[in-house]
Amino acid sequence: MSEFDVICRKIRNVDIQGAENVARAAVKALMLKNGEKSVQKLISLRPTEPALRNAIEFVKGDPKRMGPLALEHFRDSTMKIAEYGARKIEDGMTVFTHCHSSSVMAVLKEAKKRGRKFRVNCTETRPLFQGRKTAKELSGAGIPVTMFVDSGGRIALKDSDLFLFGADAITSEGKVINKIGTEMFAEIAEKYDTDTYCCTDSWKYDPMTVFGLKEAIERRDGKEVWTKMPKGVNIMNLAFERVQPEVITAIISELGVHPPTVFIQEVRKAYPWLG
Amino acid sequence: MSEFDVICRKIRNVDIQGAENVARAAVKALMLKNGEKSVQKLISLRPTEPALRNAIEFVKGDPKRMGPLALEHFRDSTMKIAEYGARKIEDGMTVFTHCHSSSVMAVLKEAKKRGRKFRVNCTETRPLFQGRKTAKELSGAGIPVTMFVDSGGRIALKDSDLFLFGADAITSEGKVINKIGTEMFAEIAEKYDTDTYCCTDSWKYDPMTVFGLKEAIERRDGKEVWTKMPKGVNIMNLAFERVQPEVITAIISELGVHPPTVFIQEVRKAYPWLG
Amino acid sequence: MSEFDVICRKIRNVDIQGAENVARAAVKALMLKNGEKSVQKLISLRPTEPALRNAIEFVKGDPKRMGPLALEHFRDSTMKIAEYGARKIEDGMTVFTHCHSSSVMAVLKEAKKRGRKFRVNCTETRPLFQGRKTAKELSGAGIPVTMFVDSGGRIALKDSDLFLFGADAITSEGKVINKIGTEMFAEIAEKYDTDTYCCTDSWKYDPMTVFGLKEAIERRDGKEVWTKMPKGVNIMNLAFERVQPEVITAIISELGVHPPTVFIQEVRKAYPWLG
Amino acid sequence: MSEFDVICRKIRNVDIQGAENVARAAVKALMLKNGEKSVQKLISLRPTEPALRNAIEFVKGDPKRMGPLALEHFRDSTMKIAEYGARKIEDGMTVFTHCHSSSVMAVLKEAKKRGRKFRVNCTETRPLFQGRKTAKELSGAGIPVTMFVDSGGRIALKDSDLFLFGADAITSEGKVINKIGTEMFAEIAEKYDTDTYCCTDSWKYDPMTVFGLKEAIERRDGKEVWTKMPKGVNIMNLAFERVQPEVITAIISELGVHPPTVFIQEVRKAYPWLG
Amino acid sequence: MSEFDVICRKIRNVDIQGAENVARAAVKALMLKNGEKSVQKLISLRPTEPALRNAIEFVKGDPKRMGPLALEHFRDSTMKIAEYGARKIEDGMTVFTHCHSSSVMAVLKEAKKRGRKFRVNCTETRPLFQGRKTAKELSGAGIPVTMFVDSGGRIALKDSDLFLFGADAITSEGKVINKIGTEMFAEIAEKYDTDTYCCTDSWKYDPMTVFGLKEAIERRDGKEVWTKMPKGVNIMNLAFERVQPEVITAIISELGVHPPTVFIQEVRKAYPWLG
Amino acid sequence: MSEFDVICRKIRNVDIQGAENVARAAVKALMLKNGEKSVQKLISLRPTEPALRNAIEFVKGDPKRMGPLALEHFRDSTMKIAEYGARKIEDGMTVFTHCHSSSVMAVLKEAKKRGRKFRVNCTETRPLFQGRKTAKELSGAGIPVTMFVDSGGRIALKDSDLFLFGADAITSEGKVINKIGTEMFAEIAEKYDTDTYCCTDSWKYDPMTVFGLKEAIERRDGKEVWTKMPKGVNIMNLAFERVQPEVITAIISELGVHPPTVFIQEVRKAYPWLG
Fold first, then answer.
1. Is F15 an interface residue toward A (CB < 8 Å)?
2. Residues of A in contact with D193 (CB under 8 A)
3. How confident is the model at residue B198 (pLDDT cuts 50, 70, 90)?
4. Which of C89, C148, C199, D172 could potentially form a cystine with D209 if both were Cys, beta carbons 3.0 to 4.6 Å apart?
């Protein structure tokens, strides 16, 4: 089995997780074996991930030259998001987060490195308990963290000063697609006048949405929710939901801190090849 | 060990669950062995449950005579709640519920018995997954049911026409104490103009709250949420939250269908001995 | 044809309009010919009108003695509503109203009689244009009136200081059943912090709703909306909608000025025979 | 000048301040010189204060016997309000208050006496700076207090867990008349899900409002706001505003802790002579 | 009479309806007879229609060459709007619309052509009943449609998943001017989290609004509302209202799907000659 | 002492007030004595004022040539703001304003000059009573004005059709930093659907905020609030607060009338040197 095929299999089997990690792996794969067939195969592995498609679009013309630039983009991007986001965290604050986002983790750790004294409230994030990963990682980094069941999110938010979350995709309407529960919590944060930032690489923007195409919301196997789910019980296991731009203070990306509707313009200006 | 002590142990060990079941068991215990000491012991087993305290208050003067009346009260009450509540369910409706409430179960089954065609959306209700019990029981009764993770509650509610939930206690301010998440979902239901009913025996009313006493919100062991919870991670495992009367359409009890602030007056009128 | 039958026919043919007029006519009919059969027949003519049912309940035991008392009740009631309501109208105010309510008319005329200088904004109230009747009657009484199409109601309300409307029924949940559009306008009034009063005889209260029974919302013939309605077009011609108590400042009845949840208690206290 | 006349003058000249102090003084005056003329004179000194009118109503039949009972009522009432209210204050809380209310002061001091550790955010309350009196008195009682200008009230509330305020009058609609700014702050508190309690003697209830009479909102001299107010500048110096019952969690009175619409019923039941 | 004059008369007499049809006719007229006088005359026929003014601006320099391009613009634009909009409609959806918009019609028909199974709820849209035209046209195209009186709009929206409407003008503030009722319904849709799209050619944008100029809201003859309107009754017959950008998910134009504030930037970029 | 130093002292001692006046003075100072040291000194006098920093950035390369252009910028800007803003004021309107803004003053006076008949409601704006300056200046200009204490702002707004305010800084998130109270009043204005405009020179935009930097909110001496503030009383005297873009209809600047998120893009386009 070729190295290209190994990467493809790892992406398909979700051994590689996180939209950016998948995009990076695909870039490396294209550097090994380019061509329209490779491109189609890689896209087919995660048909709903804009970061994957955008990275391939950027690289496919000349993978040898563009591949390293793409990898550098992701590296730089994370550093900038961490820097800009860390400035939002002040001493004494409590930060709320839902699910697990590598960008949010980078922001929180950078703030800690800069000496900010703050604590984090997180949800456990059913069904896959990504909140446990968040809690463990923060605790390991010396950041005080308190975990709540998801239905305790309102109480956790009432006790917080800031809400940070990641993104799986961003549409031309300024909507952010992220873990189920994000919209519910962002609406509650808005009611409490709590600033709400989406921390993400800007390549999550999906340029096709300008033509009316919708991000599909993946419906996953009910067994993920209840292994021994009895016959007759139906389970609606939606992985994501759409967050309205009205309840997002700003998107923190490598392009800076911009409200969603400004972000859309900035990403088009910065990367005209995105289409 | 006396039969009285056996009942006490079962209450303490949570072998007997549900506020009404506990109250019934305490009534039976007092019929076996009355006296101030028995009263104090029984109350001490669940110091925050008004139904237990009210039942003891009703019975303790003359357990032989009043005990059977108390047990009859609970039996009749459930039947009336089922009858009144079932009238709220119409063909084609989707009913949302959170956690597991025997009163809500009685309402849904009665509606099914009357031939209503409806379906139910429920949450799984972490950390103890009482929603699974709800889903299983409804499915067993031939009622179509779809389960969501708790953070999918907003989406489940948007797709529902009615929200039914139970109660652990009701205060003089018209607040209902119920499973964590109930207030969050009731606020969302109100935003969507979805009628929201609390189905409960009226003995859940706590007469001491009129003097400013607050229902304590039990904070349970973090291990219930995460068995292998790592050191350094703090878990806030609140069992309940307070639901404001403004987001409750009415309380359906054996006294009829009343908005929370009317319910308070009706329960005082019906049971003057409640204090 | 007997005089009893003449009245029945007039009620059935909607020659007699308005819930109170119907109730008064039924009282007179019972005074002519009492008995269980007469009672059943009269109720069957308008099965969803509590005022009719309550009046019959009050009278049926002894129509000769109770009939005149019932008629007096309605007379006195209107006078008191007019008096209490008129006190809410101050010089310089603009009052918004929807549809045509004899109680609201009485209030406005009484305020005019007392020398208040105010103007009225009303809707035309499709499909039956009862707003035209309102506008004509007010203009005839020397009260300046401006009429808007129904979809201009938001603009009319923004320009108003008070919203007055009538009632067809009141439930144990404190909901008022009134002309379609009333809930939409009452929610807008609440957003603008505009006081909203329901002016009505208290016999509109439906005592059966305490047992979970719902007021049926009459769906009328589509031809009322579009005489030459083409094949294939469906028309949903709902006559009424339910107004939540949260958006009603108070109900002005012969019993005084009470928030909906207080009104319910007062009406039960004043008329224990209501059940 | 008779002692009766001295009291009258002191009330008129605002040497006696606070609705309850005025009521107490009037009771003492009536004990000195009763009769319809005395009654009319005393009421005329503060025509818009229900506590004064209710106290006179209670006493006037037999001042010798009823006067001491009235004075005792006020004494007992304050103690009970302090007791019930203090139970709402928990360690670590921040309490927001506006203006200066003797009932609120009693609650805060009682909580301090019971060992509660809390702090207070207060406004300065223009134009008469009653907030300074509040701040000084609390600081003197050893309670940490932070004062904000009135336009900083939103920020002060966001940082608070509880909002306590007094009352000048309560209407049959459940509205509380209190210092201008109270409604604005109570709406903000509701948005933040902050419990909001009105602490007051129940004799502030105005029984005439059931007949549609409105509490007049006193408009005071503009010089109170700007001593050297230049010609051409108009000043709208409203002393009070009406707080909707929807944004008040409960009224804490000597009758207990009741939502406004329940309070109205309880006060009528407790004092049937109120009318 | 010249052909130019014939077109002018038809525009003036409203024989030509709809902002785009008027703009197209004006383009044709200019192709027949150009010059400053012709331009001024055409603009004077509909002084408040940006599409007319923008089309003339585009064409007037060289009508022979630019005229056909303008006509092509409108043709292409409608096709693109239909394509982008149709992608928003999914099987099982109910779409709400108000008034009659040719762009919305194109979207709905395109969705039907693509095999989408959906139904439409529409208002009758007083005073001119354009909703009847909408209902008839949709029914003719085989799309199930249900019509409501305007005051039933809230109920129709609660039962819908999407709200589509047209535009008469768009301002630099992102406000859309459209049929009276649109703002009221868009606010209700926002409360229910229902996506709300304005479907329109981008030439409806009015570049003069950037300098603070306001779109005039035409007040039409009261007779349109009530033919036999009696003396003394005033009728406020406003044709349009302004919809705030906060309640519009996106504008679907030939430029793609953009939130209102992004749309404004995109239209300036695409058509720099717009000024 | 050099003239440069005199200007520096005047800025430091707040003899020169208002962000634009300070910027103008700094430009003049740089024209007298340029160089990195002068630049650093001038910025250090008001480290949180973007207008000062932006003006210095514009001028510092060649003060002789650029200085006059900067001064001209401010002159032209005020005239354009006045012109664009005045078009928003219609006969019969009431305009609400808070604090004192030279841009708002210019708009109101221009509207008066154009013959508009309107009146103004203003707050007194504690602690420095800038509202008195506003009231006096407007009254002097023949514009009817009514002043309210700050806590009467809700009532003043309910009686107004438009809310105009100034700006101290504008961030990349579209937030406007302005006098404390502005956010509270802007939220109330939004609830009442009252258009809310920020009138300001666009050089108040802070380009550093795109990198996550926050505008510091100055906390001033408590003595400003209470001269004889007693020991033990803490005073939180925040000068400003952040207004969310969602509650601002548009920013009226020399660049035209733009919603905050569009304004940000326009200012970057117009002044690319801003960074």
1. no
2. 158, 192
3. very high
4. D172
Nearest CA in chain A to B227: A132
The reply to whether C18 touches chain D by the CB within 8 Å rule is no
pLDDT at position A3: 94
E261 Cβ under 8 Å from any chain F Cβ = yes
What is the rounded CA–CA span in Å between residue F179 and residue A259?
A: 23
- Please, are residues B205 and B272 in contact by the beta-carbon 8 Å criterion? no
Task: Identify the active-site residue in F8, F122, F150, F168.
Answer: F168
From the list C125, C123, C112, the residue with the least C-alpha distance to C85 is C112
Element of type H or E holding B263 = helix B260-270
Whole-prediction pTM value?
0.97
Beta-carbon pairs below 8 A across chains B and C:
44
- For residue E106, what are the contacts with CB-CB under 8 A and spacing of at least 6? E78, E79, E81, E82, E85, E199
* Positions of A marked active-site: 99, 168
* pLDDT given for residue E1 in this prediction: 82
Half-sphere exposure of C23 (CA within 13 A, CB side): 29
- Alpha-helical runs (H) found in B194-235: none
C81, C101 Cβ separation under 8 angstroms: no
Nearest-angstrom CA–CA distance, A73 and A80: 10
Chain A partners within 8 Å of B178 (Cβ): none
Which residue in the set C84, C259, C261 is minimally distant from D212, CB to CB?
C84
pLDDT of residue D216: 86
What is the pLDDT confidence band of residue F273, given thresholds at 50, 70 and 90?
Answer: very high
Q: Which amino acid is present at C181?
A: G
pLDDT at C14 over 90: no
For residue range D198-210, list pLDDT tens digits in order: 999 999 999 999 9
How many Å apart are CA D71 and CA B231, to the nearest integer? 60
Which helix (H) or strand (E) covers residue E7, if one does? Answer: helix E3-12
Neighbours of chain B (3+ CB pairs under 8 A): A, C, D, E
Q: Say if C and F touch: at least 3 Cβ pairs within 8 Å.
A: yes
Catalytic residues of D: 99, 168
Q: Which element (helix H / strand E) includes B50? A: helix B50-59
Q: Which residues contact D208 (CB under 8 A, 6 or more apart)?
A: D275
Dihedral over alpha carbons B135, B136, B141, B142 (to 10 degrees): 70
D contacts of F234 (beta carbons < 8 Å): 144-147
Q: CA of D80 to nearest chain B CA: how many angstroms apart?
A: 9
Residue D233's SS3 state is strand
Is any Cβ of chain C less than 8 angstroms from the Cβ of B253?
no
Supply the pLDDT for residue B242. Answer: 97
HEC string for chain A: CCHHHHHHHHHHCCCCCCHHHHHHHHHHHHHHCCCHHHHHHHHHHCCCCHHHHHHHHHHCCCHHHHHHHHHHHHHHHHHHHHHHHHCCCCCCCEEEECCCCHHHHHHHHHHHHCCCCCEEEEECCCCCCHHHHHHHHHHHCCCCEEEECHHHHHHHHHCCCEEEECCCEECCCCCEEEECCHHHHHHHHHHCCCEEEEECCHHHECHHHHHCCCCCCCEECHHHCCCCCCCCEEECEECEEEECHHHCCEEEECCEEECHHHHHHHHHHHCHHHC
- Cβ neighbors of E86 (< 8 A, separation 6 or more) are A212, E107, E110, E111, E113, E114, E116
- Look at the block and give the residue holding tokens 């600081």: D139
Q: Give the one of E246, E249, E252 whose C-beta lies nearest to A212's C-beta.
A: E252
Question: Could you report the per-residue pLDDT of E9-60, keeping only the tens digit for each?
Answer: 999 888 898 889 999 999 999 999 999 999 999 999 988 889 999 999 999 9
Min Cα separation D34/chain F (Å): 41
Which residues of B are catalytic, by number?
99, 168
> Measured between CA atoms, how close is D10 to chain F, in angstroms?
28
